[in-house]
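Incident log entry.

Two folding requests arrived from the same account within the same minute. Monitoring flagged them as a possible duplicate submission, but the sequences differ. Recording both here for audit purposes.

Request one:
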Amino acid sequence: MLHRVVFFALAALTLTPWVSAPLALVAGAVFALIAGNPFPKQTARAQAWLLQGSVVGLGAAMNLEVILSVGASGVLQTALTLGLTLTLAWGLSRAFRVEPVSALLIGVGTAICGGSAIAAVAPVIGARPQQTSVALAVVFVLNAVALVLFPALGQLFALSPAAFGLWSALAIHDTSSVVGASLQFGGEALAVGTTVKLTRALWIIPLTLVLARVWPRSEATGQGTKRPWFILGFLAVAALVTWVPALQAPGRVVAAVSRQVLVLTLFLVGAGVSREAVRALGVRPLVLGVSLWLVVASASLAAVKLGWLVPPL
């Protein structure tokens, strides 16, 4: 009974300005590993809805014309980086002897948007629950590291807020962690990071359609894919505040509330880690995920720092 009370107290505390995004994530994970999550199914469902609702709410502070411009200008760049990341994941899987399904899941999670991409691709390629869990565990660990490490590295390399937002969107797996890291660099970093990450997340849809056609049919499960429909909500809200000027002031309030709810969401994400998932985290998939992430993060940081990639906003 006591650990349930503590869980609710910690969750409520994340809605205050005293708890940062990294602290919320770490607090959730530490609590889950020590006491166990008292509501695993409910928190998994709640974090999905809260994340999607918060991302939609963040659209209230965005300009749709800028978002569409970012998406159009980055089509070739995104396609190229997606192809290179997946090719590198395949090469590393051969080097580290990681079976293809787990390697592909880790690759798409790194290239697009972490857990959302993994959840969408897993049923298409016939991934077993264990393979999906391992890929999600790898992504979770690297998200937690990035959320704490990236702001410090951004300061070390003297990145501007816009440059930091771009780098976060390119190198951090999940949208929630991109938002959490960018939030620590200010509003401009948050706007760039969120916009670039969400435009990249749209690539889940064509990727799942392609994989459904090319992946060996003998391994398919026949299950439907999970598409990120919340991105359409983000675009719809951005369209409203862009084309109805009277909604811009209340839109900023909605976006501010959404940013705070995201801190709660990160606490629930942390609370989703379990001892079983930690035990399932094999050494080889973790080495593959870390190696792939280090290459992507280092290359994108160099490209941003040297001006080869320019913040779109």
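Request two (distinct sequence, not a duplicate):
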Amino acid sequence: MTFDVAFSPQLHHPIVPVEVIEWSELMGRMPAHYFPARQRAGFNLLIVCTSGCGVHRVDFAPVALERGAMIRVRPGQVQEFEADPDFEAKLIIWPVESDPGDLDGPPWYPGTTAPSTWRLDSSEMSRVLRWVEELKLQQKRFDGSRRHADLMRTILKALLLVVEVELQGNVSPSEGLPAAYVRLREQLELDVDERPSAAQLARRIGYSRRTLDRACRQVSGQTTKQVIDERIALEVRRLLADTSRSLAQVRVGLGYSDSSNFARFVVRHLGQTPTEFRNQLRSS
């Protein structure tokens, strides 16, 4: 089962802009069905493992957790928690509206060069945890005022800048990538539910198809259409994993009026029919 999960602070003021919670605290507060289910996050999440070991799945890929491991989960991604893990971690959770929008580098997208996992050494771990503890302190003191919310967002921004500047080696995620490719991926994230064609995206971002194809081949060895299809296939996979939606709802939501065309796309890119893919997820 998969279900959408929105930002909903568990421990503190109902409008706190950022929440820090221990993994063990979350386990003690959430119902049993919360953890085995796949969740499509409607918020940002940073997981910093402080002890033990385990596995967390993000967009169906396993990520090993052990002390020093850090994972960033973004809105729209599908994640799976372990039901009975043998690790402790700090979870930093914030809604889309609290996300600092002016950090250097382009927005994250599937396939970006921006990392989503890190292995922190003891020094890096200490720096990250200092910012996390400051967030936790301000969370306890939060009075609901705009000034206090701004303070917490500023601390969050500082934490994310530490991750981006110090842990990514001062290299911007867009460095070395063609501008046309970066703009294509940014626009594709905004329009993925429409299943835009290469020609439509080219018009929207002001580049020729030839320029986009050249940029895509330089980065990925693929054509613009192949880049688009790969991203749409991931979205189909995410939506099919959401068993609260019927196959018809998934199909119509992605703009397929004909079920045969939808099925052919799924078979071509996922290797199974929509029903087969969903049944396999249910049994896993």
